[in-house]
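Technical annex, item 7. During the second reporting period the consortium partners agreed on a shared format for inverse folding records so that results from different sites could be compared directly. Each record opens with the tokenized structure and is followed by the designed sequence. A conforming record, contributed by the partner at site C, is shown below for reference.
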């Protein structure tokens, strides 16, 4: 365990109490300091240090200062021999701990398999669980190497049991279809070579989703259907964390078909479990890929449709330059000359009051005001050939 040896940490974990000083007793300087360090280290870690280098100099100096000793006297402390054995036994008794037995080790392995491994598969985490378990049972942990062996043994036994249980749940038909994934397709009897026949079906299942195209969606659906036809039990891995299965999926992803075939001959339970875990995870990944591709395709269709509609509207809008100003002038001319066709045809449709309201509205808009000051009228005040009638009302003829 790594510590940050700040002054606060030293005071909290390595300050000797009166009862601890009494327990250490009066010995030779090196034995007194060595026993004090073992005592406080066991209180912190629930174990004794493996070797002298495990004790930092700052800890040695801090404890030695409380005993009014120099840290250099620790060099005379024997790491092997009767004194250190007596010190360890006295410290275990003082804290109420005992040494570990073979039966304890077996029970620890069983405990890891039943309580920890279904949720945790990292060896470092298993070792931490072992130390915590031993501390709760008031048992002195074995050496670091023995702790690693216990964690490794529990993981191996749990994995082998998992392989056997999964293998037994796979029917012979399902195992046959799983084996076909790592076999090359049967050659065409006509001698025609197909590119797909150069790869195993497992290779096709490893392909990524691809681009947002209908063709890629079809290919993804084909891979998904291929996995569904395997007939894996729906509840085969439902109680296992997905990250646990991804480790097996990655093993299959990087393994060659020939390697998997050799492993199938040597350990069929492990091989078929790995293939089933690979297909289980890939089925969920491909399902997510199909949904993602459909969403992306629909979004692209929407964007292209919006662009086409924007272009069409823009073409319609710019088809006649200054059409808004022309319409404004047309309304003005209709208002000024309501006789003739305008009065007979348009006014009944629009109404004079609405025409007046429309004219007042357009006269206050930016395009009309800017155009009315500089542009010439687009419609003449009077279309009559007789100038004398221009002051009066004129009929507008429409050809």
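Designed sequence (site C submission):
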């Amino acid at each position: 365990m790594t510590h940050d040896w700040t002054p606060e940490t030293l005071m909290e974990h390595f300050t000797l109490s009166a009862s601890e000083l009494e327990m250490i007793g009066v010995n030779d300087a090196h034995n007194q300091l060595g026993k004090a360090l073992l005592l406080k280290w066991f209180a912190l870690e629930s174990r004794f240090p493996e070797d002298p280098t495990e004790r930092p100099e700052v800890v040695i100096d801090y404890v030695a200062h409380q005993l009014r000793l120099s840290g250099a006297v620790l060099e005379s402390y024997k790491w092997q021999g009767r004194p250190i054995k007596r010190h360890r036994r006295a410290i275990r008794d003082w804290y109420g701990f005992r040494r570990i037995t073979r039966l304890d080790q077996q029970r620890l392995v069983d405990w890891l398999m039943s309580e920890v491994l279904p949720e945790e598969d990292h060896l470092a985490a298993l070792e931490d669980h072992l130390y915590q378990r031993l501390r709760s049972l008031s048992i002195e942990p074995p050496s670091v190497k023995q702790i690693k062996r216990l964690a490794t043994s529990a993981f191996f036994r749990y994995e082998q049991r998992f392989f056997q249980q999964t293998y037994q749940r796979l029917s012979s038909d399902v195992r046959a279809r799983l084996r076909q994934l790592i076999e090359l397709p049967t050659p065409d009897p006509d001698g025609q070579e197909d590119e797909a026949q150069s790869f195993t079906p497992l290779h096709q299942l490893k392909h990524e989703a691809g681009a947002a195209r209908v063709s890629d969606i079809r290919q993804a659906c084909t891979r998904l259907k291929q996995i569904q036809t395997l007939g894996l039990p729906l509840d085969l891995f439902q109680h296992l964390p997905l990250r646990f299965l991804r480790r097996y999926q990655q093993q299959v992803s990087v393994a060659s078909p020939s390697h998997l075939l050799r492993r199938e001959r040597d350990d069929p339970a492990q091989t078929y479990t790995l293939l089933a875990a690979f297909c289980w995870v890939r089925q969920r990944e491909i399902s997510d890929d199909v949904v993602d591709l459909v969403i992306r395709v629909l979004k692209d269709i929407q964007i292209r449709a919006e662009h086409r509609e924007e272009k069409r509207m823009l073409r319609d809008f710019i088809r006649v330059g200054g059409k808004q100003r022309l319409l404004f002038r047309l309304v003005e001319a209709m208002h000024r000359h309501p006789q003739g066709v305008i009065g007979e045809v348009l006014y009944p449709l629009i109404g004079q009051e609405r025409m007046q309201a429309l004219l007042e509205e357009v006269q206050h808009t930016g395009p009309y005001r800017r155009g009315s000051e500089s542009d010439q009228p687009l419609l003449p005040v009077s279309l009559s050939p007789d100038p004398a009638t221009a002051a009066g009302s004129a009929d507008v003829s429409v050809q």
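The two ends are 101 Å apart (CA to CA). The longest strand covers residues 98-99. All partners now use this format for quarterly exchanges.
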